[in-house]
Amino acid sequence: MADTKREIERKYESDDSGLPDLTGVAGVEAVVDKGMASLDATYYDTADERLMASSITLRRRTGGSDAGWHLKLPVSEGVRDEIRAPLSDTLPDELAALVRSRTRNVELLPVVRLRSDRDVRHLLDADGQLLAEVSVDAVHAERLSGGVGDAQWTEIEVELADDGDPAFLDKVEKRLRKAGVRRSGSSSKLARALAETAPKKQAAGPGGPVTAGDHVLAYIREQRDAIVALDPAVRQDTEDSVHSMRVATRRLRSTLKSYGKVLDRTVTDPIGDELKWLAGELGVDRDREVLAERLSTALDEVPGTLVSGPVAERLRVWAGDSPGGASARLIGVLDSHRHLALLDALDALIADPPLLKAAGKKPHKVIAKAVTKDFKKVSRLVGQALELEPGTERDVAIHEARKKTKRTRYAAEAARPVLGKPAKSMVKSMKSLQNLLGEHQDSVMARGTLRELSAVAHAAGESAFTYGLLYGREEQRAATVEAELPGFWDGVKGAADGL
After folding, report:
1. Domain end call among 167, 197, 227
2. Residue 255 shares a structural domain with residue 382
3. Is residue 96 part of a domain?
4. Rounded to 5 degrees, what are φ and ψ at 407?
5. Which residues lie within the region annotated Disordered (predicted)?
6. Cα–Cα distance for residue pair 252/259, rounded to 1 Å
7. Which tens digits make up the pLDDT trace of 8-65?
């Protein structure tokens, strides 16, 4: 079984490659020599170095206290999650799965061998507790594929102790800088090894002018990258990861629709259909979870004297609380041929985009026109909803307005680098409107569920009183939104004026 460790470290280099005296660092009571260790690691990547492009490292290492397979995923600068699996001859399936969104069906190859002689020191506080581990690594890197030759260097690595205060690393760095030690220019040993042993490349020529197509593709690339990067987190059931991936999927699909004058929709619509499928799969459990939380919270607000029958238990059964079930289902989706084919299609779209004539034009007019067009659709749908009497037709109209509002918000997000403040203002207005209309749609969904639960309870001989009470409260929440909507819309309907 793999286990995960949060790694917070900094890498340094110096001209004399020595380790200065660290006894003067604030909070350090003792510097303990832990001896030497010989480490031998083989790093794996695809031939086109997809993992390294995402600052991910995958290695099989022997020697030291943590021999085994190590997968390091970036969290932020200087912070990575290291996922470890026991030493074996072949890559463990659980680690292979965590990089599948990047590797797809491409073979992982040994790309670099790193052998290091590590001189280790422990920095201890007055209670003898570990503050950080400092090591001086004499590294020999050998290129195994995709390059030539080898490289050697010495670096200093400072790794914070588990649950340590990151501010302590600043104190160590202050002392190191005084001794002439500087931050490493490479994010990892592998990055440096690849850079120093890579085949020489011709310098790229000057870039062309920035076009409407460039801006749209930049946003598409950002959302594609988010979907790929969130894959390991979804597999590990990290909080909010499913929701974040679903949002990136929706942003991407909306962008393909909104900017149909930039990218040929005969090419992008099939990709949009697959994105819709993925968003639906990601939402299967999420939507029910959110609705169950809403109803449970509403039930908690009902006085006990007004709760008749096993309402809470019926809600739990309806929610289908089965720990691990959702994750297992989603992992199946992420491993499916359909999902991997979608990721390949997105890569192909970005590599060879189906650009239309407008894509080559200056961005401001093209992008502003696309956002304005989406906003006009919102305006028309809100106007239609306001003309209808309360009831099912109005509920449907409000829901359609909400979907178009979300699309306009995402179109404006993509437009922000070009349009600046007007786009930012549009995003803010559409987000507020989306939240208001979303509250209405949540009420519609909640009332539908309450009707179902009431029918089940009645058939079982239970009282349906509490379900009716909750239904009435949800009805009132929807009515409140409908009463607020005209004035709210008056406040935002000029949002496109500055575009």
Report:
1. 197
2. yes
3. yes
4. -65, -40
5. 188-209
6. 11
7. 999 999 877 678 889 889 999 999 999 999 999 999 999 999 999 999 999 999 998 8
Closest CA to 159 of 129, 120, 132, 119: 132
Residue 252 near residue 220 (C-beta atoms within 8 A): yes
Locate 199 and state its tokens: 């085949």
Amino acid identity, residue 17? S
| Residue 350 in tokens | 């970005």
DSSP type of residue 493: T
Look-up of token digits 């004399």: 16
Q: What is the pTM (predicted TM-score) of this model?
A: 0.86
Length of the chain: 499
* CA distance linking residue 407 with residue 375, whole number of Å: 9
Whether 129 and 227 map to the same domain: the answer is no
CATH of the domain at 328: 1.40.20.10
pLDDT of residue 209: 62
Contact 394, 482 (CB under 8 A): yes
Give residue 480's Cα distance to chain centre. 35
- For every residue of 395-448, DSSP letters joined together read HHHHHHHHHHHHHHHHHHHHHHHHH-HHHHHHHHHHHHHHHHHHHHHHHHHHHH
Is the Cβ–Cβ distance between 2 and 84 less than 8 Å? yes
Confidence of residue 202 (pLDDT cuts 50, 70, 90): low
| Cα 429 versus chain centre, distance | 24
Distance CA 4, CA 238 (A): 12
* Whether 100 contacts 86, CB under 8 Å: no
